[in-house]
Design goal:
heterodimer; A: 676 residues; alpha+beta; B: 386 residues; mainly alpha; three-stranded antiparallel beta sheet; 14 helices; 3% strand
Chain lengths: 676, 386
């Protein structure tokens, strides 16, 4: 080989080196000069690990200081993802999960292999996180783990604070539930000062959701400087968690329990009824609501909705199947709070407001078409005078059950629930030139219909008040027939049970429409200091002179007290002398289904302290189902004998002590026997 | 004045005063090469101390500092010996050196060998460990150089295969440890020696084809440990998994990027302080340089390597015989490959392998072997006239 060739080949070697150096320097330039800022930022967070310590959530109390929602500790098993991913092959991973599921189940908490695998795949956790794989594990597992830690590398336990419900499922719809936040919710709270993390819980419904910002504690954190294996070497900053504030509701858990019990019983009774005719729809009574308010401020004392659910089911999460079950319309949507979101035609319970509209508008009165005491002949059928079918929709309107009440004045019309009398009022207000066509609608809105009641709970229904102007806006015709059925609370009119109760409360207290109040105050859980107090919120002052109030009230008192009152039999034996109840039954027609049964009442008169409204779907007459249920709620209240509810723990103690007593008796007898 | 040839002049001068002559070996010691090597060793010692001294300022741990200083001094002595010993004599010992090396590579796989980090590569002597595969690099260089220097004309195919065989046997033994990185060094040394030794272009292609096939078969068979295939896969597609290798590579790049232009300052690198970069005093030592001395320090270090390699290439060009040129080329190949790989993997442009950065990484065997190699280069250069 010639020296030239050697030289050439050595130059090639030099070129190779040049390329190598070029590549290294170019990459160095990129890393250290061009993108150094980005890497510096990464390096800063790299050596710092932030450990969050979640803060206990605030508790929820009823008006008498009973704890309705509490916290308890749940032992959670975690698997360190880094160890799991890097130190095991697939076979070893399977073995570990199987062993884990076996031991956790053996320790008393049944856990399936796929549940652990699903948890390990949860994308909310990063590659270096400890992933929770099983909740509410018994302490026995901790012992197993301590004794055989070498069999469970990367497995640990943490204690998590979870929601506890001392009264079980009572007031589930009011209290709501908490569960892990979903992606959309995370986006909403990502900048919240109470730092949310992806695996945090958030109030989803009820008080838990509406008072999320109050109930949620501020998580504490420790910023640690860590070494390569994640062991802390120094504490950089430590901030203690701050517990969430306690919420004190206006709810009375004893009345709530009573309301739920009677709602359930009423629906069960409704289902016992047989349809009059075989072709009539059946009384399915799938759901209903029962609301108890204090009319002086519209404080919510009870808000019952059926069917209901168990908020404790959400504590550890549940399967998608269960979630689908809860959402399925065939199961009548147990998560749906009918008391404030269900929209129902109020039926005859609305006559109170039609009567008010007629009196306030002058239809009834000295210069009206009728005076209060003027008798009007109810012949069982109302025939619209000079009727043109297409203008009015229909020319004849009948009483329910083809009843004929004969001569009725306003008071008797309310007491016996004469539809014909109110048809006449509706027709008159619609057609007589000197009256405003929207008199009923305006009165309804004064009492809060067609607008959210303003209760501090989310998910409230708005309801509907149909009117000529609304129909016009929608391009629909408004016919006199629409006004006629509106007068008896039918047609397109829709109200939530809470709206109806609140309208009654405004009438009962003499004309003040309040926003229903759910929360009395928010307290600091440690100092007991009141953080936020809620005053009565007046929405509207309704003009309510005695000339209007007294006759209507008289008619409503007759409903329970008079022999011909629609709820007389339901209130037979009720101490009406000491605790006079004013009420109004409602039987609202629903196309293709059995009637909804309604009853609205307040007492004791003349200074009412309680308003009760019951609505029961597909349950028949208001008089035969809803009225008895309301009576059974009012009677213990009137006689001051509302039973005190026990917490689940109390019940457990009680049954234990009964068993103990029995055992003691047994022992005592045995002793006597041996002595004898 | 009579015109005399250069040869004649050299001859006369040699005759006149051999010891003080311009051509005496010690007059041609490459001072620049020695300085560059010393500079790199100093950077290495500083970086090793930074990453191994511990976190307690009151109580820094000088263990690695002291040992690496000892290795540098010992390596220096070996370098002097390697430079002093007339290199041409090595052709006589080439077979013996190679044989002893192969034997030690066999023995290390047995019960006498010690396993560290999953590779059975070490002999233990009290507090010191010896890595025979490191020393075998010199043995391979000397053996292949001795073999190729016997033939002045172009390579024949059987000779090429014989030379490949010299490289292949230790390569396979090292793969059994398993240590892919060192095996790759042998392959690169062998390739460069064949290139300088006069291999033909079509022979290069043939070897490349065979080598590709063998490597593909190796990766698909179970010869490589799982972590090694993972490393390769991670390099090909870093997003596949958070395996240890991807973690290491990311941490290394964060450390280097964190250095910026001027560096975080000596002993101030947060990645270095928190020990987030694995194997930082050995294979990933360059991350300390990158983080604490920044682009300036990294470029300076690469500059010292450039000087070193340039001087070795020059020594190869100046060498009096093919054997000398081949030895220098072999050492050049060894240092270039190790530097490129050990720096490149911290920058994320080469896959992770356990290759030390010559003169800088912690480790006695590596330091001593590199310095022996440089000693041989000095040897070739200073004996270019005799």
């Amino acid at each position: 080989m010639s020296p030239e060739s050697l030289r050439l080949r050595l130059s090639f070697l030099g070129l190779l080196a040049l390329i190598a150096f070029g590549a290294l320097v170019a990459r160095l330039w990129f890393l250290q000069v061009l993108s150094s800022e980005e890497f510096e930022a990464q390096a800063r967070t790299n050596t710092v690990r932030v450990l969050y310590e979640s803060a206990p959530r605030g508790r929820v109390f009823d008006r008498n200081g009973n704890v309705l929602v509490d916290n308890r500790e749940s032992l959670v098993v975690t698997v360190d993802r880094f160890t799991y991913d890097t130190e095991f092959d697939e076979e070893e991973q399977e073995e570990l999960v199987l062993r884990l599921a076996t031991e956790i189940s053996r320790a008393g908490r049944l856990t399936k292999v796929f549940e652990i695998n699903d948890a390990l795949d949860d994308s909310r956790y990063g590659p270096l996180d400890a992933v929770p794989v099983a909740d509410d594990v018994t302490e026995n597992f901790e012992i197993v783990l301590a004794e055989r830690s070498d069999e469970f590398p990367g497995v640990g336990t943490v204690v998590r604070s979870v929601r506890a419900y001392p009264y079980g499922d009572l007031a589930a719809h009011v209290l709501g539930y908490v569960s892990l936040l979903n992606e959309d919710q995370y986006e909403l709270v990502v900048d919240d000062p109470k730092t949310y993390r992806r695996n945090d819980e958030i109030g989803q419904t009820g008080v838990e959701a509406s008072f999320e910002s109050v109930l949620r504690g501020t998580p504490g954190f420790t910023r640690l400087e860590v070494d390569n294996v994640g062991d802390p070497v120094a504490v950089l900053e430590q901030v203690d968690p701050i517990a969430g504030a306690d919420v004190h509701l206006t709810l009375d858990i004893d009345i709530q329990a009573l309301a739920e019990k009677e709602l359930l019983a009423g629906l069960a009774e409704a289902r016992q009824q047989e349809p009059d005719e075989p072709e009539d729809p059946e009384f399915n009574a799938p759901g209903g609501a029962l609301v108890v308010l204090d009319p002086n401020g519209s404080e919510v004392l009870a808000l019952a909705s059926y069917p209901t659910y168990s908020p404790s089911e959400f504590v550890n999460g549940f399967s998608e199947d269960r979630w689908a079950q809860l959402q399925d319309p065939n199961n009548h949507q147990p998560l749906h709070n009918r008391a404030l979101a269900g929209i129902y035609p109020p039926g005859s319970t609305f006559k109170l407001f039609t009567a008010y509209a007629a009196m306030n508008g002058g239809v009834i009165g000295p210069r009206g078409v009728l005076d209060v005491r003027t008798l009007y002949e109810d012949v069982g059928i109302y025939v619209v005078p000079s009727c043109e079918e297409d203008v009015i929709a229909s020319c004849t309107f009948r009483n329910a059950e083809e009843a004929i009440y004969g001569p009725v004045d306003l008071i008797r019309a309310i007491t016996v629930s004469s539809d014909v009398y109110f048809y006449y009022l509706g027709d008159t207000m619609d057609r007589a030139d000197r009256f405003d066509r929207e008199g009923i609608q305006r009165a309804a809105r004064l009492f809060g219909f067609g607008a959210p009641s303003g209760i501090a709970l989310s998910g409230e229904g708005v309801g509907r008040v149909p009117s000529p102007s609304a129909a016009e806006a929608a391009g629909e015709p408004w016919r006199t027939g629409d006004s006629i059925v509106l007068a008896i609370g039918q047609g397109l009119l829709g109200a939530t049970p809470l709206q109806l109760a609140n309208g009654y409360a405004a009438f009962a207290n003499g004309g003040t429409l309040y926003a229903p109040k759910m929360v009395n105050r928010v307290e600091n859980p440690v100092t007991g200091e009141v953080v936020q107090a809620f005053d009565d919120r007046v929405l509207n002052q309704v003009y309510m002179p005695n000339s209007i109030r007294v006759p209507i009230l008289e008619g409503m008192l007759g409903v329970t007290a008079e022999l011909e009152g629609t709820a007389h039999s339901a209130f037979f034996g009720f101490p009406l002398e000491e605790w006079p109840v004013a009420g109004k039954t409602g039987t609202a027609e629903v196309v293709g289904k059995a009637d909804n049964s309604l009853f609205a009442a307040f007492g004791p008169n003349p200074n009412p302290e309680y308003v009760v409204v019951a609505i029961m779907e597909e349950s028949g007459f208001g008089a035969s189902v809803a009225a008895p249920a309301v009576r059974r709620v009012l009677e213990p209240i009137a006689t001051n004998s509302v039973p005190a509810v026990r917490t689940i723990d109390d019940l457990a103690d009680l049954s234990e002590s009964i068993v103990d007593d029995a055992a003691a008796d047994e022992a005592g007898r045995a002793e006597l026997g041996s002595a004898g | 004045m009579a015109v005399i040839s250069l040869e004649e002049r050299r001859h006369r001068e040699k005759e006149l005063s051999p010891a003080s002559s311009h051509y005496a070996p010690w007059m041609h010691i490459d001072v620049l090469l020695v300085l560059a090597a010393a500079g790199l060793a100093a950077i290495g010692i500083a970086a090793i101390y930074s990453t191994t001294r511990g976190r307690d300022p009151e109580n820094f741990d000088p263990f690695f500092l002291e040992r690496q200083s000892l290795f540098a001094v010992a390596g220096g002595l070996f370098m002097v010996f390697a430079a002093w010993f007339p290199y041409r004599e090595l052709t006589k010992f080439a077979v013996a050196i190679y044989g002893v090396g192969i034997l030690s590579l066999i023995v290390v796989l047995g019960p006498l060998g010690e396993e560290v980090n999953g590779a059975r590569s070490w002999f233990r002597f009290g507090d010191f460990q010896l890595q025979p595969s490191e020393f075998q690099k010199i043995a391979v260089i000397v053996a292949v150089a001795a073999f190729l220097s016997r033939y002045e004309e172009h390579m024949t195919v059987p000779r090429v295969f014989f030379a490949v065989g010299i490289v292949a046997w230790p390569g396979l033994l090292v793969l059994l440890q398993p240590d892919v990185g060192t095996a790759l060094i042998y392959v690169f040394i062998g390739f460069v020696l064949l290139l300088i030794g006069g291999i033909r272009f079509r022979q290069v292609i043939g070897i490349a084809l065979i080598a590709t096939t063998v490597v593909a078969l190796m990766i698909n068979s179970n010869m490589l440990a799982e972590y090694q295939t993972n490393r390769l896969r991670t390099f090909v597609d870093p997003s596949i998994d958070i395996t240890e290798a991807a973690f290491q590579q990311r941490q290394a790049q964060i450390a280097i990027g964190n250095g910026g232009v001027g560096g975080k300052g000596y002993g101030e690198g947060s990645q270095t302080l928190s020990g987030l970069v694995p194997q930082q005093h050995t294979d990933f030592i360059f991350t300390v340089v990158g983080e604490e001395f920044g682009f300036v320090g990294s470029a300076t270090t690469l500059g010292l390597y450039a000087i070193l390699l340039l001087r070795i290439l020059q020594a190869a060009r100046l060498a009096r015989d093919r054997f000398g040129a081949l030895i220098c080329s072999g050492v050049f190949a060894m240092i270039l490959f190790q530097m490129f790989e050990a720096v490149g993997m911290t920058l994320g442009i080469t896959p992770i392998t356990g290759i030390p950065l010559p003169l800088v990484s912690y480790g006695g065997s590596s330091a001593i072997v590199t310095l022996i190699g440089l000693g041989l280069v000095l040897n070739v250069r200073m004996r270019r006239f005799v």
